[in-house]
Amino acid sequence: MQTTSEQTFPIYRVKVRWSEGWKEGQEQYPARPGSAPLPEGRYWNSCGWDRMEKDDCDPVAMADEIRREWWPNYSAKKLNKPDDLTIEVELKGRDTWCEGWFSHYTIDIGLSDREVLDSFERYVDRIQYNYDLTDSQRGGALMGAEDRWRWHGCADGNPQGERTPAPCRCPHCKKSGLVRIDH
Ligand SMILES: [Zn+2]
């Protein structure tokens, strides 16, 4: 049984949407019903992620920051003539850990490795035994975190690179003020 209440942090849902041109040879899907019409040769694309912050943030300011600092690099590298960008940020809730891509992270408040691992174990258990979730919601939220042997860190901010024991204390995490567990 938990004897102390754990610190939670605000988690924001980021939703990014834009139009872009089909690339040559790219498989073309019909437009989603209800989406705004686009000129021929273009389609709507989107992505999104959750972001944990140490303190409450203004969602509008966060959307502006993503537009300024993330979008130019992302769109230049990956997309074919992107346009019609919208970025929405909304508060999703508060929790002890935030989901990434086969990874979870939280704010580094100076806990020891042992304390961080215990906290993550409680978080994983809470999701795993939450019977309000469907199997696929649970699977999407955990992304393999239920298997403790998968937990690891990395040496240089690249989870596909050299691995270290969990939790991750690499220079990238330190600089971001986070502690991460990849899985
Ligand atoms: Zn790291």
Task: Describe the protein's architecture and organization.
The protein is α+β, with helices and mostly antiparallel strands. The chain folds into two domains: 9-94; 97-182, no CATH class. Helix content is 27%, strand content 29%. The protein is built from five helices and eight strands, in the order ββααβββααββαβ. A three-stranded antiparallel beta sheet has the order 2-1-3, with helices on one face. A three-stranded antiparallel beta sheet has the order 4-5-8. Strands 6-7 form a two-stranded antiparallel sheet. The structure holds zinc ion (ZN). Zinc ion binds at residues 153-154, 157, 168, 170, 172-173, 180.
Number of helices: 5
Percent helix: 25-40%
Q: For the record, give the distance between the C-alpha atoms at the N and C termini, rounded to a whole number.
A: 26 Å
Spatially, the strands of the biggest sheet line up as: 2-1-3
Q: How many domain modules?
A: 2
Largest sheet: 3 strands, antiparallel
- Residue runs with pLDDT of under 50 for 5 or more positions: none
Structural class: alpha+beta
Q: What is the molecular shape? A: globular
Query: What percentage of amino acids are in beta strands?
Result: 25-35%
- Small molecules in complex: zinc ion
Mean pLDDT: 94
Extended strand count = 8
Please tell me how large the radius of gyration is: 19 Å
